Amino acid sequence: MAKIDVQGFGTYNIENGKKLVLALEDNGIDILHRCGGKARCTTCRVEVLSGDLGPIGDKEANIIETKGLSGNVRLSCQICVSSDASIKPVLTVSSEGLDAGPRPTDECE
Ligand code: FES
Question: With 25 labelled, which of 2, 8, 41, 67 sits at a CA distance of 20 to 30 A?
Answer without folding.
Answer: 67
